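Archive entry: two folds, one per protein. Generate the first.
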Amino acid sequence: MASVWGAPTLAATTPTPAVKGTIDTRQRFKPINPYLYGGFLEHGANIINHTMWAEMLHDRKFFYGVLSAEEPRPDPKDFRASMAYIHKWTAVGPMDSLSLDKADAYVGEHSPAIGLSPTEPRGITQGHIALVNDKAYTGRIVLKAARPTTVTLTLAEGRGREQTVKVQATSAWSTIPFTFTATGDTMDARLSITATGSGTLLIGAVSLMPADNIKGFRADTIALMKEMDCKILRMPGGNFISGPYDWKNTIGDPDKRPPVFDPVWKALQPNDAGLDELLQMCELIRCEPYWCVNTGFGEARSGAEIVEYVNGAANTFWGAKRAANGHVQPYKVKYWNIGNEMYGHWQFGHMAREQYVIKHNQFADAMRKVDPSIYIVAPGGFVDEMTTGQGIFVAGQPEVKVGSDRDWAYGMLKFSKGKFDALATHAYPPENKRFDLQSGKLFDVKQTLTEWARQPAQRVATMVDAWEEYKKRFPELNDGKVKVFFDEWAFSFRDSYKGTLAIALAFHEFFKHTDFIDMAGYTMATAWLNVSPTGSVISTKGRVFQLYNRHFGSIPVAVGGNSPQPAPAYPVGGDQPKVNTGSATYPLDVMAALTKDEKVLTVAVVNPTEAVQNLELALDGFNSGAKGRTFALVGKSLDSTNAVDAPPEVVIQEDSFDARTRRFEVTPASIRIFHFPRSA
């Protein structure tokens, strides 16, 4: 095995028979929509708050009040609890000096009230704050006191390093700014807010951010997301938006936005990275926003109002509120997702299909009345997803048939025709498992690397099989106007070189169906980054997105070969498509596309095996120049990753090759894109 995985080498001769592939540039398909390189971003617990958002303090509006002692971290094996864990405020001084004032709460249900003492400092404190030496930090605190009170903000950095800022609390709520500059690197600084005297001190909210934040977002992660060149970003959910989420609680003064408990992720949401902030983040990273509205506990009026807030002129009711919040010009958001996985029994607000289609139509009509130009995406629930995701499970009938009462997409097509432009579908195939069509349960399987890496592509193909059946029942789909948005998909949530093989094969399957698959949103977009409290880096997954986004062409062309993919080993249906995915170059997968100007033929070759493979290519309809370029994803092992504050283990390697050569020795577990220039 090669010492470095991923970089195929040219070979003048090959001792073993080569797989033969033929690329015919005369047979072309609809161009690849760059939205296939999109992402999905959900608040889900701390996904946004602790990666993109710059706030360093947890529970800054005191949803949980003040505790006597810090809570222990949950067991890391408890994924959801670990995701939701935050540091909470604890008391300085006796607990009986603290209460929660509900009568004069600044935001939310209550504000901490501290009974002061003339002889000892009393207040609150929070630890585990990460600082970078010489970095400036800006904050603000909202205070009120029965009588004028000097309040001390103390930043303890450890090893005796401590700095203080004095601020004044008066009889009216007031917001007071403060600044610190770190004197060393630490992951365990502590901020304390204390006072001495008499009477009561109330704290409404407190914030601390790096001074270089950009509109509340971390400068480092914003820069990396901009580098990722994300084409479209679906947000803010996801399951998060179907419950008690109310977009109106996410606009205006961030200190006055009430924190809410998200029952889906069982996590606190401060509502700081709200509607305006997320749309402005898209402006910062030059990305098309794709907004999802709440059709769970939400209602059509709210859908119309959010469209007016986002897209309405400044003289409309909600447009005026947007202008007052600092964004006079409309955001002009085109893409709107009406509802998340509303077909799923887990979804807040889930209802019978026959009822939901009416609700969807109400939303679509109300939203388009405000802005007729919007592009609407509806929750699809294709039969493959309804079966393997058990959207509406019935004992003894695990497989959902096309056109049945449990086929959600069929119902949307039948009862909501004209009320959407695209149907959404989601896929999260589990590793090393298959779906049993008889029992409706997953069972363990031992897979080769090829079988493992193929799983996401297989789920794309099962959706394609369903779409072909829908076209038979709804012939109007053949005109190509209704699209599919694969707006949530992921596989293997670890960041490893191994996982990039699965992403690349999924890309190839998307590219084969550009006639109707128009968008894909990877879960989560933050998976393109690896992030610590003080640093970030493009992840291994991010690099494979960059490889294709930057270096693969846009006009797919036909690929043939002499080695077809093996026949399915499992019954067709559920997670098994009618035909296994991949080009007729087994075990390699080859995908080809011309660049937009047709001057370069790009050929992506994925070897999802642990052995060297030999490939011989023939180019029909394309005369290549002599010198080509190659772009390979290279890592030292299948477990290679890119970690913060460490040399990257997975990189994109550029090289040149003789483009007249047609025989290649393809190293194990490799992804490489060849650029054949058109001859002059």
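Generate the second and append.
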Amino acid sequence: MIDCVDDVLTAPAPVSPVGLSSGPLGEVQAADREISRQTARRARAVAAFAATRPASADRAQGEPGAMSGERWARRAAVLRPVSEWAAQELVVALSISTEAAEALLERSLTLVHRLPLTLDALEAGMLHPGHLWPLLDKVAPIADDAIRASLERDLLAWMAGRVTTPAQLGDKVRREVLKRDARSAADRLARAIRERGVSARPDRVEGMSVVSALLTTPEAAALVAALGAYADALPADPADGRSRGQKMADCLLDLVLRPGETDLPPVQVVLSVIAPLGALLGGDQPCEIDGQVVPAETVRALLAALTGHPLVTTAAPVDGAPSDTAATDTAATDTAAADTAPAGTAPADTAPAAGRHDLGPIEVPVWPAVAVDPEFERWWTDTVRRVLIEELAGRGAPSLDPAKVEAVWAADHPPPDPASPTRDDTPPADADADADDGWWARADQAIQDAGDAVLAAQQALGRAHRLVATAQRADAADEAAWAHSPAGRVTAAPDALTALAAATDQARQALAGLLATTGGGGLADRPRLVLTDALTGALLALTDLPVLRRAATTGVGLRVPGVTAGYRPGAALDRHVRARDRRCRFPGCRRRVPRTGELDHAVPWPAGPTAAGNLTGYCTGHHRGKHQAPGWRHTLAPDGTLTVTTPTGLTAVTTPPPY
């Protein structure tokens, strides 16, 4: 008990973005920090426990009674060094299910070994357990240690000093992962698309089940929006006591189980798609579909299907660089050459192949097939001497005398003579005199077999090193080729003009065709262009191609829509404020601002104008709370910064999300 008190007194000072309250709310904050600290402490303890249960104690793969190969392959990488029975000890100790025990093991080991800064922040009270999930799901799987550590550090710095909910952190994490590890994210998306499907599971209430559909983001958004539109299209009936969600479920059943038996008209679905210019030109910049972060490839495919204007989806290889197939063939050739190289020689691959890249030679260390370390040789000699003595004793050697054995060993293994690299390994005659049952020959053969096994293992290790080096060179060549391709240059462009200059003529033509598309066809409205501050990402103006042409002709610059005379904002002002805020501005809320209504006047109209500097986007619930919750204050600055003050005096600030 004394140890626990000491731990509490010496715990790191917590960091709170809104300060510490007094009274019961302050006690809640203190309890929450202690929960975080104990969660971190439990993770470290679980990891320490796992270290005492190595997988080497389990039966190896292929042995009777071992874990099946399929189950072993599904096991998380951080769990493979841990005994499969460690989870069972946690089941007994904590009264939890096996699944929960394995999840606790995986989470704890991941925090300790792959997210150490996150674990420190949790222990210091900067995070609570809910913040862990986006970091565990998105950041921990990043294979590159440098990228993962840099992203973890930057995310923790971004959270400092602001109210951040797990959903907000998850949105930030997805966006940053797509920026820094876009190609791996694309690979994960491709694997997930192959796993899409529909499943059902029992609900907690007997007689009910939950149907789950794993779909791409645009498919899921369109499905939910379509079902909502069908439900809203049902005739109003005062006697119908169904909620909107119940009507959507009934419409889904009717459309799937009874197609053609309804006279409901078809509905149109509106999806808000936000794509940076670079993404439309073939780059990897993250995009949004109805507020959900998605890879650029998803948006390009969706817009191409809706508009009929195919956008660039693959990057042409840079001049002089090989295609992916050629790079693969080169890697295969290097691998074959490495396998056939004589033992102890380096394959001729330290210089780049002609046309592979223009970054100069890539120096990769090559290990010899057989490398004899002096320390290892001394250890091996001592071990063989000890094994020989034990072998002789076990075989019942006649007149066994350790001193005599040492003399025989010294005679049979003289110190190496530089002038004579070979030596005679024939057993001396006096040893044969005592070996009337063949014990010396068997012992010598056992030593020879062990030496052959060590030699084979070292040769296999040398081949493995060469294969790894070849794969690293092939990956470096592929990354260099992609970085010099149009898609790579567009992704690295610091601004839209540079991205346009780096794009191919085909990509620019496809983009022009998309922007020229107006209402009708697959689009409910013409594409809008968001002009943002290059440094802060703040919205400067919302426009479209016709307005840009008029501005170029008349010389009148773009600006924020002016004041609307009445209570409701005009169409241009309404679009501008919704594009600026995009989500509810209440701290921690990520709900979308409804398509109609919910733009609040900070200073009530008509005392305050219907202008961008006096309008804030809220979800319905927080809009009501702004007017009805007692003791709360909402203050809006002209630049859109919103300050919310609670009845206990805590303040939180939100700004319009940057693009």
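Annotation attached to the second fold: The radius of gyration is 34 Å. The mean pLDDT is 77.
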